[in-house]
Design a protein that fits this description.
Order of helices and strands: EEEEEEEEEHEE
Number of helices: 1
Strand content: over 45%
Distance between the termini: 40 Å
Helix content: under 10%
Structural class: mainly beta
Radius of gyration: 13 Å
Largest sheet: 7 strands, mixed
Number of strands: 11
Shape: globular
Length: 128
Amino acid sequence: QVRLIESGGGLVQTGASLRLSCTFSGGDISRYAIGWFRQAPGKERELIVASRLRNGATSYADSVRDRFTISGDKDQNTKYLQMNNLKPEDTAVYYCAAALRTSDYFAYYRSGRPFDYWGQGTQVTVSS
């Protein structure tokens, strides 16, 4: 059974950095695409990064491009989301998810429906 566990959230000030971890177990991670989502109170869930591990195709939402970076070798079971220059609007619960049916296209993943497995989430709070 595939499991995903996120960690690394916390409370930081505007402009700070955080690195979130997503640890995958129970399968061959290289077959999957990994997505990072976030959901702020009262807002819809937002896809911020999608990475197809087989070929490395990675896309970012406009809201985080140039500030957030996903990393981790294709076969490593832990993927990281490095978040720099954090802003109060980045405050949310962050989730990683894994999809077995993959695509190179960000729009394919945006709804969340392609993802088969989800982590429990980790809270990120950015104070102004």
